[in-house]
Specification:
The chain is α+β, with helices and mostly antiparallel strands. The chain has 4 domains: 2-21 and 214-442, Rhopdopsin 7-helix transmembrane proteins, CATH 1.20.1070; 33-211, Sandwich (Jelly Rolls), CATH 2.60.120.260; 476-665, 2-Layer Sandwich (Alpha-Beta Plaits), CATH 3.30.70; 670-741, no CATH class. It has 25 helices and 20 strands. A hairpin with a 2-residue loop joins strand 15 (579-595) and strand 16. It is globular.
């Protein structure tokens, strides 16, 4: 029943995301210019002179779509050009032709003055442009994606969705401006020309980039791929659960489909012919895999009609990989028509039957409460596996119909089926989660229930402070958090049986925990709060003891690496482990986390996050131990080998702070060099932070890095990158910002 209660919030969140995406209004700057309000002129052939002169409609060579009538895209097929026609399902496309598009638009004097006086960088946005093309602004070439062979045939396609790029502001002139396009493509292909009806406009490039970020979609893609791989592994471990195979493939296919529709894909796969084929293949595969999952999960067999349909669609999906893009569009039409046949079959034969059974079972369960049929129907939808699946299928059906109507009549390219797919896969995930939960519950009946537990040392500490540990209060206190993480754990554990991986972690953790045990035995508050796979979080109340423990932990790691077999009997020959350690001192909240059957009293807050971030940054600087400035102020620096490393700002924190390395455990020659070169390193930092004499600073950094000081190499790379970008160098404030976690 617990799993059922979680379904509604998940489905509701997806629905709210969908609504917010439709309701969000794009931001606009003072230079915003809607190009859809301008007419678009088009003709066959290309003359460079047409990029700088207004079209002569009287010549008869130009065709025009008036700005007030531009409710459809301006594809080549939307004009009345005399072009060769191709047969439906012909595997070959039509030979490429060359076309010219011209869009005259006006930029008021006020906008030009604003551009001149501001630091704003203007940019263009086009909802969809293909196939090969060049773009000219007032006769000047501003963007080019022309990839033709010696015979003039396209060798790499560039039908790009959400095309946006910056442009030199000096190219704009007051009032009359001319935007011209040279387009080369198949005249019968749907994506030759402007293939979407949504906005094409000019605006602040930063706003355009912000409005068209794919971060949420990329996060969804990662979730889909992870879930798919996870269920494929589940199938490998338990072959008789074939539904996990179908769902794993379905989740990966959806992840690839979403990926093919992002702007990120163009940086990895520039040829959009490959991108479109990948997109169609994934789209075609969705329904067969969904039907296979539903039928095998529910009745443990596949209907003959599903097998036949799946075979035909998969063959069609594979065939479009080898023929023209026009052929792919034809197969897409066949697939869309086939939905009218298969979806009713799935709804009636699969979902309808199972939903009816679920409704009857729920009616028996609530017989005493005498719910109305409408209430039982709602409860069946929300509280039964196949009710959830029904919601997912209905979401796909509704959004699919919206997209088909948009594809053939509106051309906005809204792609609302993404949300339908998300609801559908979430409903499947919840069903599988419920099934897995039932299996776990069966196991929990055999073993004793785990008792509530918490850290005994911390309870004693709270009691000393006149707190009642039975009340489990939240305490605000200054604490030092030490995060450790094993480097390259995946490659270390690769090929190890699961028992060996567990034995390795236990042996390593036992070895590295000896300094912490020693501190605890001396009476200090020092304990491991939690294990996170190959990482640990340790808590100290004394920053001096925390840093001492970190240094001794590094020394203990060296002992482990000398003879791993002492700690881990199955250690392979030549095994070597590296780890990063990040320490941060600051305020934390010690409070209760968990649920009714398991409680933990654990620290939360910025200091915990900062310690984790510092541990991650040890890889950036190639430094074993990093600490924050608050910890540095709370210790006796003379007791350690410390060096100021950088002044940074991390994601999620507005205020910069200093970080330091502890290099006691470096190789003797490296440690000696860092001590001897401390004045040179400080000189480098003064130039680096101030932004002065960077040529000298780069030479000094390169000199230090050649002697093995990797931090100097980091400075060199940064300064070269920033120095090469005048805009970045002008904004330099001496603080390097890490924008990723």
């Amino acid at each position: 029943m617990t799993m059922n209660k979680k379904r509604l919030p998940c489905t509701g969140c997806i629905f709210l995301i969908f609504l917010s995406s439709l309701a969000a209004a794009p931001k606009q700057s003072p230079i915003y210019t809607n190009l859809r309000e301008s007419p678009v002129y088009a003709k066959t052939g290309f003359d460079i002179a047409d990029t700088a002169r207004s079209p002569d409609r009287a010549s008869g060579s130009w065709q025009v779509i008036d700005g007030s009538l531009r409710k459809n895209p301006a594809r080549v097929i939307d004009f009345d050009f005399s072009v060769p026609k191709r047969r439906f399902l012909s595997p070959f496309g039509t030979p490429e032709m060359e076309f010219t598009y011209v869009i005259p638009f006006s930029m008021s004097l006020e906008k030009i003055r604003f551009l001149k006086d501001s630091t704003l960088i203007p940019g263009f946005f086009f909802a969809g442009l293909g196939d090969n093309w060049e773009i000219y602004l007032n006769g000047q070439l501003i963007r080019r994606e022309m990839h033709l062979d010696a015979e003039g045939h396209i060798k790499s396609h560039r039908g790009i969705r959400k095309l946006y790029f910056p442009v030199d502001k000096t190219l704009f002139v007051p009032e009359a401006n001319l935007l011209a396009f040279r387009v080369v493509g198949d005249p019968n292909y749907d994506s030759t020309g402007f293939f979407y009806s949504s906005l094409d406009y000019i605006d602040d490039y930063a706003l355009i980039a912000e409005e068209n970020t794919d971060s949420l979609t990329v996060a969804m893609i990662a979730i889909y791929i992870f879930m798919g791989i996870y269920h494929l592994f589940m199938f490998v471990l338990r072959r008789k659960d074939q539904h996990t195979l179908y769902y794993g493939l379905l989740s990966i296919i959806l992840g690839l489909y979403f990926f093919a529709r992002t702007t990120v894909v163009y940086s990895l796969i520039p040829d959009t012919g490959i991108v479109y084929r990948l997109e169609f293949f994934c789209l075609f595969s969705f329904l067969p895999l969904s039907a296979l999952f539903v039928e095998y999960f529910s009745i443990k067999r596949i209907f003959l009609i599903t097998k036949i349909y799946s075979g035909i669609i998969i063959l069609m999906a594979i065939s479009q990989l080898f023929f023209s893009l026009d052929y792919g569009e034809d197969t897409l039409l066949i697939w869309q028509i086939s939905l009218l046949v298969l979806i009713p079959i799935i709804c009636v034969c699969d979902i309808g039957y199972l939903f009816t059974v679920s409704l009857k079972n729920l009616k028996k369960q609530y017989a005493e409460k005498k719910y109305s049929r409408r209430v039982l129907l709602v409860k069946t939808l929300l509280k039964t596996p196949f009710g959830n699946l029904t919601i997912g299928i209905l979401a796909c059906l509704i959004t699919g119909i919206i997209d088909v109507v948009d594809f053939y009549f509106m051309y906005y390219g809204r792609n609302t089926i993404n949300y339908g797919f998300t609801v559908f896969t979430m409903s499947i995930t919840l069903i599988l989660a419920q099934r897995l939960s039932l299996l776990y519950n069966q196991q929990e009946r055999i073993v004793a229930r785990s008792r509530k537990c918490m850290n005994a040392k911390l309870v004693d500490w709270i009691m000393v402070r006149d707190h009642d540990p039975g009340d489990l209060p939240s305490v605000n206190t200054d604490t030092t958090v030490m995060m450790t993480d094993i480097r390259g754990f995946a490659s270390l554990s690769e090929g190890m049986p699961s028992q060996s991986v567990t034995g390795f972690l236990i042996g390593l953790n036992e070895a590295l925990a000896q300094p912490l045990f020693a501190a605890e035995d001396r009476g200090y508050i020092a304990y491991t709060d939690k294990f996170m796979g190959d990482a640990t979080m340790n808590i100290f109340t004394d920053p001096q003891i925390a840093l001492e423990t970190a240094v001794k932990t590094r020394l203990q790691l060296q002992t482990f690496n000398k003879n791993p077999a002492l700690f881990f009997k199955d250690a392979p020959a030549g095994m070597r482990v590296e780890a990063g350690i990040g320490l941060a001192s600051g305020p934390v909240t010690l409070g209760v986390m968990g649920h009714s059957r398991r409680l933990d009293y654990t620290p939360i807050g910025d200091t915990v996050n900062l310690a984790s971030r510092l541990e991650s940054l040890t890889k950036e600087y190639h430094i074993p131990i990093l600490i924050n400035d608050a910890l540095y102020r709370g210790i006796t620096p003379e007791s350690f080998y410390l060096r100021h490393i950088d002044r940074i700002r991390v994601k999620g924190k507005n205020h910069p702070f200093d970080i330091y390395e502890e290099f006691s455990c470096d190789a003797p020659d490296i440690r000696a060099f860092k001590i001897e070169s401390i004045s040179q390193f400080q000189e480098l930092q003064e130039m680096y932070f101030s932004g002065n004499s960077w040529e000298d600073a780069i030479r000094l950094a390169d000199s230090l890095s050649q002697s093995g000081d990797f931090t100097a190499e980091v400075y060199s790379r940064r300064m070269k990158a920033i120095f090469a970008n005048p805009e970045l160098f002008e904004r330099w404030d001496g603080i390097y910002t890490f924008n990723e976690k």
